[in-house]
């Protein structure tokens, strides 16, 4: 990814040489698979604010994902982390209280990036005080809101896993989950984008706010579709039970059967099973496309003179769209043991073409229509 950025001419250092900022940039590359590419396309205060927001949300996510803590412990730890951001002072005592409460096992694994980041909360949190309040306040707000949402779903996950699997009952539950882990990020971005340019006035900002949650949901649902088989291996499924029942599955995990089960079916039963399974995933693919439609419209509301901001949005959206195109009606997810995802060459092509045409709404619409066709 670094080479792509260098070739594109947007990967230059944009932060100060202070050790804390250097640490933040370095750890971002270690804890992010692809989002670092987008963040490093930005400059100045917008770069810094989104970098810090990502790291804070990654800390919260690390707590929520821990397999050894129970829900009450996660809730308490997430509350301590959220408490840091309840005042602009970002008090040292609150930071220390959070770090002191981290599991001892994490200290033994401090060389692992996610735990390393959590153990350096005292390094990354104070950096937010260097930013103007118009940037810092939205970051604090989204961190607090996400911690609350994660605590809520940690309780649900614990209750569900007691029966062997974590599942979501309804499409509404899926929407709520996706809102807390991604939709609110869209809200954050609108505030930060508006803070970064006078060309996003109140009217334009209001239009963006009608679509910004969809920006986050588009990327999250596309990831859920793409990663569903990997999730099933850890006994987690974000495919709503109500969609599965619609196509004859008693539970969502009934879709994830081994080859031994499939080989034991008659040809007719296997074909029916695969058709129904693809139909379930196909509904989520269509849901992702609907949000991608809104997310593309959202991106076009960003003034086209803001090249880096548009690229920040266009890159993940076109990557998600290309992934949804590959997955198609959902059947390809289960067609082989290999995960369905775009190649590095496709990523390079997306970066190269959007660098040339980011300013053109007409080109964006045309290219998106080609992918969506």
How is this structure best described in words?
There is one protein chain. By secondary structure, the chain is an all-alpha fold. It folds into two domains: 12-147, Farnesyl Diphosphate Synthase (Orthogonal Bundle); 163-373, Farnesyl Diphosphate Synthase. It contains 19 helices and no strands.
Helix-strand pattern: HHHHHHHHHHHHHHHHHHH
Distance between the termini: 28 Å
Low-confidence stretches: 1-17
- How many helices? 19
Helix content: over 70%
Question: What's the CATH architecture of the largest domain?
Answer: Orthogonal Bundle
Please count the beta strands (DSSP E, at least 2 residues each): 0
Element layout with pairings:
Layout: H1 2-8, H2 19-31, H3 35-39, H4 44-65, H5 71-84, H6 92-101, H7 104-108, H8 113-119, H9 121-124, H10 133-161, H11 171-196, H12 202-209, H13 212-233, H14 241-246, H15 259-263, H16 267-300, H17 307-327, H18 344-357, H19 361-372
Helix pairs in contact: 2-4, 4-8, 4-10, 4-11, 5-6, 5-10, 10-11, 11-13, 13-16, 13-17, 16-17, 17-18
Briefly say what this structure is.
This protein has 373 residues and is mostly helical. Helix content is 71%, strand content 0%. It contains 19 helices and no strands.
Question: Tags for this entry?
Answer:
373 residues, Farnesyl Diphosphate Synthase, 2 domains, mainly alpha, disordered N terminus
């Amino acid at each position: 990814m670094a080479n792509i950025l260098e070739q594109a001419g947007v990967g230059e250092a944009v932060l100060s040489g202070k050790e804390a900022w250097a640490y933040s940039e370095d750890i971002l590359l270690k804890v992010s698979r692809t989002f670092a590419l987008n963040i490093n396309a930005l400059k100045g205060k917008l770069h810094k604010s989104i970098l810090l927001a990502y790291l804070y949300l990654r800390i919260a996510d690390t707590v929520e994902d821990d397999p050894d803590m129970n829900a009450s412990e996660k809730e308490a730890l997430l509350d301590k982390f959220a408490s840091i951001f309840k005042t602009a002072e970002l008090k040292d005592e609150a930071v220390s209280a959070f770090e002191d409460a981290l599991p001892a096992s994490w200290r033994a694994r401090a060389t692992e990036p996610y735990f390393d980041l959590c153990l350096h909360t005292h390094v990354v949190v104070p950096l937010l005080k260097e930013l103007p309040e118009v940037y810092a306040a939205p970051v604090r707000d989204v961190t607090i809101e996400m911690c609350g949402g994660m605590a809520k779903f940690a309780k649900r996950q614990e209750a569900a896993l007691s029966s062997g699997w974590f599942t979501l009952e309804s499409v509404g539950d899926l929407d709520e989950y996706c809102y807390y882990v991604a939709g609110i990020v869209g809200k954050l971005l609108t505030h930060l984008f508006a803070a970064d340019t006078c060309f996003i006035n109140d009217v334009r900002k209001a239009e963006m706010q009608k679509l910004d949650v969809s920006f986050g949901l588009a990327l999250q649902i596309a990831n859920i579709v793409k990663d569903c088989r990997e999730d099933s291996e850890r006994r987690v499924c974000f495919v709503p039970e109500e969609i599965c029942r619609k196509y004859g599955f008693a539970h969502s995990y009934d879709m994830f059967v081994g080859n031994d089960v499939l080989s034991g079916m008659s040809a007719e039963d296997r074909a029916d099973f695969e058709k129904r399974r693809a139909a379930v995933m196909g509904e989520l693919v269509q849901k992702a496309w609907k949000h991608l439609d809104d997310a593309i419209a959202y991106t076009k509301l960003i003034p086209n003179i803001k090249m880096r901001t548009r690229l920040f949005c266009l890159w993940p959206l076109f990557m998600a769209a290309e992934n949804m195109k590959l997955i198609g009606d959902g059947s390809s997810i289960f067609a082989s043991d290999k995960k369905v995802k775009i190649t590095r060459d496709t990523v390079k092509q997306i970066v190269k073409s959007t660098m040339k045409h980011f300013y053109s709404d007409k080109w964006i619409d045309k290219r998106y229509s080609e992918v969506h066709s």
